[in-house]
Amino acid sequence: xxxxPRDNIFMIKIEQLHKSYPIGKESLHVLKGINLEVKEGExxxxxxxSGSGKSTMLxxxxxxxxxxxxxxxxxGELIQSxxxxxxxxxxxxxxxxxxxSFNLIAYKNAWENVALPLYYKxxxxxxxxxxxxxxxxxxxxxxxxNHLPNExxxxxxxxVAIARALVTEPKVILADEPTGALDSETSDSVMKLLRxxxxxxxxxxxxxxxxxxxxxTDRIVLLKDGQILSDEHxxxxxxxxxx
Amino acid sequence: xxxxxxxxxQNVTKNKLRSILTGVxxxxxxxxxxxLFGVVNGFKNSFMKNFKDDASNAIFIHVGSTSxxxxxxxxxxxxxxxxxDYNYIKKQFGDDIEFIxxxxxxxEQISYKGNKDRYSIRAVHPDHKFLEVTVMQTGRxxxxxxxxxxAKNIVIGRLVEKDLFEGRxxxxxQLNLGGINFKVVGVFSDxxxxxxxRTVYMPITTAQGIYGNNxxxxxxxxxxxxxxxVDEAIAFGKKIENILxxxxxxxxxxxxxxxxxxxxxxxxEVNSFFTILTVFVFVIAxxxxxxxxxxxxxxxVYIVKERTKELGIxxxxxxxxxxxxxxxxxESVFLTMISGYIGLLLGGLILDWSSELLExxxxxxxxxxxxxxxxxxxxxxxxxxxxxxxxxxxxxRIKPVVALRAD
Lengths: 243, 407
Ligand SMILES: Nc1ncnc2c1ncn2[C@@H]1O[C@H](COP(=O)(O)OP(=O)(O)O)[C@@H](O)[C@H]1O
Ligand SMILES: [Mg+2]
Known about the structure:
The complex is a heterodimer.
Chain A: H1 3-7, E1 10-23, E2 26-39, E3 43-47, H2 54-61, E4 69-74, E5 77-79, H3 84-94, E6 95-99, H4 110-121, H5 125-138, H6 154-166, E7 172-176, H7 184-199, E8 203-207, H8 211-215, E9 219-224, E10 227-233, H9 235-242
Parallel strand pairs in A: 3-8, 3-9, 6-7, 7-8
Antiparallel strand pairs in A: 1-2, 1-4, 4-5, 9-10
Chain B: H1 2-14, H2 16-52, E1 58-63, E2 81-82, H3 83-93, E3 97-112, E4 115-124, H4 128-131, E5 135-139, H5 144-149, E6 153-157, H6 158-165, E7 174-177, E8 180-189, H7 194-197, E9 199-203, H8 204-210, E10 216-217, E11 219-224, H9 230-247, E12 258-262, H10 263-306, H11 308-316, H12 321-359, H13 370-397, H14 400-405
Parallel strand pairs in B: 4-9, 6-8
Antiparallel strand pairs in B: 1-11, 1-12, 2-10, 3-4, 3-7, 3-11, 5-8, 6-9, 7-8
Bound molecules: adenosine-5'-diphosphate and magnesium ion.
């Protein structure tokens, strides 16, 4: 009973996390004892060279994959061997995802894509549409509500994806290289959008390998060979604190 | 519940190619199924119609000329039944015979007032009514009293009355048969078709008297006792044949002097033929359906594979495994049912459209029965579910991270 409130300070708490992938008879040790704590309302970026284990870590945090060893607590809830039914429920309730390749459903238009998580939440159709339109408005795409993904630009697609991640009002947004497929100008505007969301209190974890992008967050966790090399606040954060 | 159907409807309509692919497979297999059953049913219908005419335990005995010399008689001798043979058979086999009649055949011009036409005449014993399954519409049939009095009474078919009396009743009227007046004492109908209903019956003794003053009988028709099994009835027919051949000094292996047509035998053959045919058709139809199911299953596997990424996205957004399973399953059932019905409808239309053509080939009124339609529908739903289940479960089990990496 004593430990519980202490855990609750952290939205995400990872202790001694290990993950390996079997490759034939061998096994590839990707995460080698990760310790990470993310408080509610933080805006964190994870950096590291390609293959350093960033996506693997984010997938485990996102309950899309399970870990081998170590302890992972999400919003005070200990995540053990993943039960798919429970996993689906937790993802729907606590997590919003943004992917590099957008991952919109091609035959659904913008608002239908945004409304999809609400469908799995059990929200009625009318309310789904109202909510979806509200969040499309928030990312500035209300006029595009009835357009299919292939009628939108990359930046617009990513905004739809962000609206979709937000629509269930989750606790954490997880974004794996959200600007990886965008030009720098569009990247900046997407990051501004995420910043705005963070300002409203949302916890956000972003993977990127661009330092400029990482600098727009509050904290940079640097991964190397499956271990955390450094974990420091950005100048953006420091300037914010000074003010 | 409604929501998931909306999802599935969107999947089906927005992914036309794969829907059409599945649909065509199922529709084609059900189309084949329908055609097969329709044609076989039509085949059965026309067969059954031919046998509806007479009692199923009837035995027909025809006579002709001998084709073999036997016991000092030369071949080519003409055999003729007479009234004494009728009495003989009745005496010998009375206990085993249900009904028996002789038949004398004639054709006569029949006229009433201005109307006339040629009709076939059958001169018979009273039992003929039961052997031919004649149904009296008005009046009565030929009686023993008619035979005794050699009465000039006739019973005419429904269509004879229609032809000659133009809708008025023929009962009690005098008809002219080749110059001799007969009184109509009854009008009948018969399931055997138009030919039967254009027939005229008269007492056998009357015909013998008028048309030759003899005792000749062209043919016997009799039926075996009802309690006999099919095999007993067949044996009974053989027994009569042997005894009559002995009576007329006909060689046992002479095929033309005495010809027996035992309906029990024919029915047995027809029944076993249809049993074999039905089994055969079931095997083929079953095979067709199985092929359809495997086809759908393959396409479902392909669909699930093609959609792995989408299913991964849905999982990431919170779709539970049960939802993934029911989505794939419902889609499979939905597609199978719709396209199955299209196949059924198409098959029905083709049968309908070609039924006139098929009639020339002895296939009458080809169609599928309600029970077969219901059966096929059930099979469709079940097969849709079976076809969808394995791929659905596989899809549900894929880890979201693996599904998302697909492409
Ligand atoms: N499912 C998997 N099976 C085998 N190896 C994998 C799998 N997923 C990732 N890896 C390997 O793990 C390492 C880390 O991958 P990842 O976390 O995607 O790196 P990053 O996102 O930092 O580029 C890479 O070497 C990659 O090849
Ligand atoms: Mg990566």
